[in-house]
Amino acid sequence: MSKKETFIKGTIILAVAALVARVLGLAQRVPLEHMLNDVGDAAFTIANNVYLMLLTVATAGIPSTLSKMVSERHALNKPAEARRVYHAALIFAAAAGVVMTLLLYFGAPFYATHVAKVPESAAAIQMLAPALLLFPAIAMMRGYFQGRNNMAAGGISQIIEQIARVVTAIGLAYVLLRMGYDDTWIAAGASFGGVLGSIGAFGVMMYFTVKLRRQDRKLELPSADRSIPLAGIYKDIFTLSIPIVLSSLAVPAVNFIDGSIVKPLLNGQIGPEQATAALAVLGNRAQSIAGIPPILAIALSTSLIPIISAAFARKDQEHLKSQVTLALRVSILTGMPVVTALCVAAYSINGLLFSSLDGSGIIGFLTFGTIFQITMMTTNSILLGIGKARLSMVHVMIGVAVKLAGSFLLAPLFGIYGIIGSTALCFLVITILNLRSIRGIVSFSILGKRWMGFVMTVAIAGGIGYGLNQAGIQLVEFMPARVAFLLTCLVVGMAVVVVYLVLLVMFGVLRQSELGSYPRPLQKVFRPLMRLQPSRLRDRG
What we know:
The chain has helices spanning 3-35, 38-59, 62-75, 79-115, 121-128, 131-147, 151-178, 183-191, 193-218, 230-247, 250-270, 272-290, 294-302, 305-314, 317-344, 346-353, 360-368, 370-385, 389-414, 416-441, 451-472, 481-506, 520-526, 535-538. The chain is globular, with a radius of gyration of 24 Å. It is mainly α. Helices cover 82% and strands 0% of the residues. The longest helix has 37 residues, at 79-115. Residues 1-8 have low confidence and may be disordered.
């Protein structure tokens, strides 16, 4: 198998694993939202946001750095060095796991009571804490296997982790609900699913580890070279990984900030009960739905990043320009129809999936901001690809500062919508700073003079989708509400996507002459539609 085929296969495995994990995550939130009240939803949201923030700090960046170091050493025929690097990473993972678990467990009561102002969330945070014992090690193992060109191990472990997490969370929550426990303990039981998920993922990684060791013994690869000092390895790892860690913090940090400030900022404005309800909707409903649009766009644009890295290394400016343009264009064009459909159908989606229609505006508004999350993540990846991880890190830190300041300034004026608006502003600021830095290295144009056509496409597709949604929700008068909402979601989703694709071609946002540069899945979608393009636009660059 060629390197290109291996890379494409690996990208597909990781993209499918990420998609399955996201779908299972949503599948977990829906039944839990029905079982929990606002306090339980808020407690579960806060526990997850704190946990994901600490997990990112403990692991993000190091697995990808480890992957790079291991693959380089194997390429140079130095497997003993690669094994030593892996052992060093596992030692760090064990120490980080213990420290993070103790910090989460013993710090939970103070954070829940005095920072987040939801004391009921302390038990949920503490029940999730033991998962941090294993997850740093799991992340290192995934990084090592990627370095050995085995993407399946990480992908399968991610899927098993989510299955174990979801089954345990829903099962325990249901049992505790039937036994008469209050929402504090039902949320804590649901949080414990994360611990079972970590055990499942660790079991999968151990299976692949044993399998790999057998292969290595057959190839007579040497054991770890213990003469290499750990201090030098850690210096190399942290020099490369710290900027990546801080660049990866944007989304977990924003969610952590929201979990920490929503109640304190809104308590005096709308009262504790309404503030808890707003946090419950934001965390358990809106964040789940808003997590959907980035999946496809980021998977497609990320597949172009190694090509960008190679072009930059070769100093091939023309190829670098075309690939940067393509990465940005693909992420925006594939992300926007999903964002638009979810925004205009927010009311129907809320009615279909969740226990009440409250908070549909919160879901729609937060989902709209994910287009800036998509551009932020794509531009962050491009900066990493051209060796500018430190710039990406600085821009993320500025964006998080904007998020904090914006929340405190806008919440008194617009309530929960001010806090959500500051999230979109955070992602937009990071995107603008990233684009400015990329433009200083290579000139590019995302859509050039085609922006007007793109805006008109989104506006018309969104307007038609909104009209269909308003008409569809009238069906609740004639049939069961959930059936009406399901039909409306399907009709709106298909209509928005079809109208969007057709108008992209008709307005010349996409041209026949450039179609060959797009990933094959997009070529298959757009090639038949190109007959609709006016002849004056068809061959224009």
